[in-house]
Design a protein that fits this description.
72% of the residues lie in helices and 0% in strands. It has three helices and no strands.
């Protein structure tokens, strides 16, 4: 039998602006999380370089490169910003060109 009760109400319509605001907040949280993970990985790399732990440095550098590339791919940071970070970190390690 079909539901014939008169108490059924349609869900309230939401404006598209409300939906956009909610998705914007969601995206902001995700983007912020990625930016934070990038800066944390970069900070950890710098600490390893200062401590001189050669075994973990290259592994951490690859992780920073990966996070930076993914953030640039998703337009969280610009491609040039990702490239600049990678260049500076490589230079810090000593893999970059020397003047």
């Amino acid at each position: 039998m079909a539901n014939t009760s008169t108490g059924d109400k349609k869900p309230k319509k939401r404006s598209s602006a409300e939906k956009q605001a909610r998705t914007g907040l969601r995206r902001h949280r995700v983007n912020q999380m990625i930016r934070t993970s990038l800066s944390s990985a970069e900070r950890k790399f710098r600490e390893l370089v200062k401590a001189g732990e050669k075994t973990k440095i290259n592994e951490q550098l690859q992780m920073v490169f990966s996070i930076a590339d993914r953030a640039a791919k998703k337009n969280i940071i610009s491609r040039n910003a990702a490239s600049r970070k990678k260049s500076r970190l490589s230079k810090l390690l000593g893999n970059g060109k020397k003047k």
